[in-house]
Q: What sequence folds into this?
């Protein structure tokens, strides 16, 4: 699990730890490729909740806007297996007028397994029209 922090408090390093199970693996006994972006997105969702305040569910359901992804890129460095916990580090790389870019690195036992960039845009939940982040969240995001 992520280490709790005061909502909105600036943090240089955010880490989200999760368990990799046997069901996450393919016949080669390493993590199924499709699980890698899933874990990265889970870590970004945890980053939202711990560093900004609301998670994606709250943003969409309670606040009326979302952050769908428009770009993802991943580089695989070493296989992910069930032998060790997977620690994902999340950093905010850039904040645009209506976009946000994160970097995520996944490590097991200190070994870099994958890293990538994830870009999403702020949109109204119903119309999916682009928008700026709400002022209260923009203030927190700019401090990060």
A:
């Amino acid at each position: 699990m992520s280490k709790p922090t005061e909502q909105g408090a600036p943090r240089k390093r955010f880490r989200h730890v999760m368990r990799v199970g046997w069901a996450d693996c393919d016949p080669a006994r390493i993590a199924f490729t499709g699980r890698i972006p899933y874990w990265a997105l889970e870590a970004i969702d945890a980053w939202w909740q711990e560093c900004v305040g609301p998670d994606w569910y709250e943003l969409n359901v309670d606040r009326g806007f979302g952050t769908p992804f428009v770009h993802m890129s991943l580089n695989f460095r070493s296989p992910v297996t069930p032998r060790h916990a997977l620690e994902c580090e999340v950093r905010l790389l850039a904040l645009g007028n209506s976009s946000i870019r994160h970097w995520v690195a996944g490590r097991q036992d200190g070994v870099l397994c994958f890293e990538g960039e994830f870009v999403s845009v702020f949109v109204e939940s119903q119309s999916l029209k682009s928008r700026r982040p709400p002022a209260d969240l923009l203030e927190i995001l700019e401090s990060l």
